[in-house]
Model the fold of this input.
Amino acid sequence: MSRTPPLLAAGRQPWEDHAMKEKTNNELLLEVQELQRQLEIQARNPELAKVAGKLASLASFPQLNPNPVLEVDAAGTVTFCNAATKEAIEKLGLAGEVYRFLPKDLREILAAVKEKTQVDFYREVEIKGSAYGENIYYNPLFKGLHIYASDITERKQAEAALVRVTEEWERTFNAVPDEVDPVFLDTVLGDNQ
Done:
C-alpha cells in the first residue's frame, strides 16, 4: 500500500507531514572534514586530496552564506537550512519554523519543475512583517529546490513610501484647476516668469 505524498494530499502543506532533519553547523562541518580525511587516507593521491579539499570548500559554501539558504526535496520537505536561516527565523520569534521561508505556491513550483516547464523562479515571502526575495532553482542531481533568500524589507518599505508620495502629489496636482488665472500666476510667480 503506497502512501500519498504530502504534496498531493488535499489541503496539506508539505511541512505538516515531515520534520526537518536538522544538524548543527559543527556536525555538518565535522562530517565534511571526516569525508575529506577518509578520501585522503584511502587515496594517498595528491590529486584526489585536492579534489577532497575542493569538495569540502564547496560543501561549506551554503552553510557560511550570510543570507538564508534552504534545500527542499521533491515532496516539499525542508532537508537543509543554513545558520543564517535559523538566525533570521529566531530573530522574528519563530524558532524552528524555517518552513515559513517556503513560498505559498510551492506545490505549483514543484509541479512546473516536474513537468519541465520552468526550473528557476523568483518569489517574495513575507514573514511576520519582514519581506524576503527568494531566488529558487531546481537541482536535477538532488531532484529538489535550492532557495536563496535575502531580506528586502527596507526596499519594500521604500517602494511603499514612494507610492504614497506619488499618490499625494497626484491628488494635489489634480486639485489644481485646469485653467489658472494669469493675474494669479503673476502674483505667485512675480518677476520669476
